[in-house]
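WARN retry 2 of 3 for item q-0093 after timeout on previous attempt; input resubmitted unchanged.
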Amino acid sequence: MSAIQQVIDESGAVHALAKKIGAGGQGEVWLAAGGRRIVKLLNRGGDAEALRRQFAFVRRLDLAGLHVARPIAVLKPPHVGYVAEFLGDMMPIKGLLDAPKADVLRWHIDTGGLRRRLRLLAHVGEALLGLHARGVVYCDVSHNNVFVSEPSHVNEAWLIDLDNLRHESDPKLTLYTPGYGAPEVVAGSQGCTSLSDAWAFAVLAWHTLTLTHPFVGDLVNAGEPELEDAAFAGRLPWVGHKTDARNRCSTGLPPDVVLAGRLTDLARRTFEGGLTDRKQRPGIAQWVDRLHAAADQTVGCAGCGGTFFVTETACPWCDEPRQAVLPVHIARWQPEKGLVEGATRLGQLPLTTEGLVLTRRVTQGLTGLSARTAHVEIVAVDRGVSVRALAGRSVWVAPVGGGNQERHEVADRARIIPANGWIVLFETPDQPQRVAVIGRTD
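OK item q-0093 returned
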């Protein structure tokens, strides 16, 4: 198959195969010349008619607004496969799991660090949620089928291999990548569901953050190859099991450094109670919420450039003392009443000289792609806090409890406000909304 240089699709378009970017049991995935298309080549003997039926099924789905490689054309014989949309400068997320033997911490930081990995995983989860909302399961979540931006400052994540999509899956036609299959799928007792997708996503999240598989601990690493098969089938305890320490892991990055407590809780619920009862597994929506929340709680290190959780007093990567942090509370506000008394705060964000870029996920509670639009930039400066509106929008700043005459509109030109007791209104002041409360209000 690797000797093939070009393929032709059903419309007659010719696609030159520029670079193999993936391979598995089904076949190979190639990047086409130009970087905007991928070609999935199925192994010889692949069922061309079954692929055409699956292609027609996927084509009928509304995939608008999802970061997925949407199939656009089936290949002409003698090849069996299809062409799909793609985004340039992407690589398999596997590249963020396979750490080098030397200088792992420098590599981890140079490839985006903790914050980027948390955000990328949240974006993967959002794509899966979008598919589930359309009534289909992805079936084969793995490090081979998730692609992320190659530039370390970009947080795009896409799913490929949409020929795996199903409304429901027959247990006799199991589809999974070794190490990612949910126990019931590996055993052949159940087909793929949204909860088997959730299992595979939990494996991917743990592996991406700790650089170790959640079922490959010291016991498996030191044992016979058959032990890995048993681990992948869920017949051994996962590395973080609450009561069974047989398979603890001494390699990779420490979970308490790279996973917030709530993420560890999701993993435990998945790999312990969810091992035998899939209904106990947290859904992907919970993972997305907590991954975003964890990313929001990271700060940058002025010494090594890494990112870490604000709960640390010093950078875990280089021991540089953490910068001073000013709290930014997200709260509710109503016209004529001000801050809503007793309302549950919507979160607290750590502000440093690195600054915060608040997206519409934070400022308006949106989800999905629209939630990623940057809304306002807040930066700690010597004289207080700099506030600037983004994307052609406006925000308003005012002292807590101040009247209409004390509100000031801020657009793309930054305004400096005091570091305590002021609020940033994200919408016009005549409507109920979320606001950011800067520092202390007492």
